[in-house]
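Q: Got a minute? One more chain.
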Amino acid sequence: MAAERVVVGGIHGFFGKQRYEVTVEVSDGTGEPRMDLPRRIGIAALLDDADAAESRANTPNPPSVSTRSGDFAELMDRLVYEVGPGEEEDGEQDGQEAFAPAPRSGPGDLVLIVGIGASALRVARSMAALTGGAVAYGGAARGETGERVADRRTALALRARGVNSGHSAFVAFILPGIAVEGPEYEECVRALRGIGPDQTWLAVDAGCKPEDTVHWTRAVRSVVEVDAVAVEGTSLTLTPTSPAELELPIGWVDGGPPR
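A: Always. Here it is, folded:
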């Protein structure tokens, strides 16, 4: 039904890891589905189309690979700026000024926002409002109306609908609390490992105790790879910069990109 080439990481399409995500429809009959030659050819054609479209979108003018070219020098400058150690004059890394990605907004992209309480919901809704994406829910979210994502299967279904409708999806994944233990938390861990998002954000409240924030975010980072932090409530605390202690790039502050 659909195929998409997904590039994770890298700098403007260079050095990233890539994979293909294919959505297929199988027979609901009692017979065993067969992947005959026409079907295999059809899937191969979808992959070729996805690869060609992605290449045209990302590299309208193929860059020169010569080390003497200006493009090569510009690429190296970007590498130094965007993935360098980010050290200040005193030798300490400033996590807040590190390169922070923007929320992914391509058709079928799935962005996971993990947090406690209402923070994850507010971040997901603000990102969806800015990019035109859809909002879904996961984890310990209760009473929310909308699609729920609990595993790889439901995540792939959400992606497929995003591809068909031309929008991304933001999953507000709520943890049961700061205490990272118990059956409900273990269930959340299993779900986090199975969703497989394109991008993962931590939604943190600037007014929470820094040691509490470090505690639960460290537990999340042991389960999934985190790309950036979204901070809420900076105007309601005397320590709005405390999330910088997480040493992760901060790419979203109080409902929008940092100014």
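A: The first helix runs from residue 37 to 58.
Q: Perfect, thanks.
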